[in-house]
Amino acid sequence: MPLCPNYRRYAAGLVGALVLTGGLTACGGGSGGKAADANTLLQAGIKEQQKGDTNAARQLFEQVLAKQPNNFYAHYDLGVLDQQSKDTASALREYGAALTINPTYVPALFNEATIFAQSDPALAITTYRKVIILQPHAPTAYLNLGLLEAAHGELAQGVKDLNTALHQDPSLGPQVPAALRKKVGAYANQPTPAATPTPSTSHS
């Protein structure tokens, strides 16, 4: 692929709105022919998305796929646009297309999990577990996983995963509900305010 992933820090999520924040990151492209053209279009789409022109961004990402049908970044970016507009069915379709091309693409898995959390917590838990296997340092994935586990009959494992999340990023402590803080430990008492969750737009 002509694009490079750029890993970004996970930010905090909440049960009911388990999503990943992060700015859109441009990746360098290759040179020559369709690859360069597709990369240029992708970067242009990213810029339009950053400016808030989602229609222009969507058109550019679709042009990328017309030139490179297997460009999983473009499928992912379309999924983000769909998720931001609350069209979760279309978002899952795009994330699924990205993962068919690249089954280990963590951001698509993470965003799938944030959608599954609303309707199928068991599937969300399974998906978050895939995320942390692929990317062991993923504090927000551990946080969201632990909250789901604790809420759905896996309290001991949930506390363990929440502890991992807060050891990796103590600033996530305020995201842990008061009822769990004593079980999780001192890391849950950090004073940093919670982040406002939004769908992931990062190519990390």
Structural summary, described in words:
By secondary structure, the chain is an all-alpha fold. It has a single domain, classed as Tetratricopeptide repeat domain (Serine Threonine Protein Phosphatase 5, Tetratricopeptide repeat, Alpha Horseshoe), CATH 1.25.40.10. Helices cover 60% and strands 0% of the residues. It is built from 9 helices and no strands. Helix 1 runs antiparallel to helix 2. The longest helix is centred in the N-terminal third of the chain and has 19 residues. It starts with 32 loop residues before the first helix and ends in a 20-residue tail after the last helix. The N terminus is likely disordered.
In short:
This protein is mainly alpha-helical. It contains 9 helices and no strands. The chain has one domain (33-189): Tetratricopeptide repeat domain (Serine Threonine Protein Phosphatase 5, Tetratricopeptide repeat, Alpha Horseshoe).
CATH class: Mainly Alpha
What is the helix tally?
9
- Mean pLDDT, all residues: 80
User: In one word, what is the shape?
Assistant: elongated
- Looking at the overall shape, the CATH architecture is Alpha Horseshoe
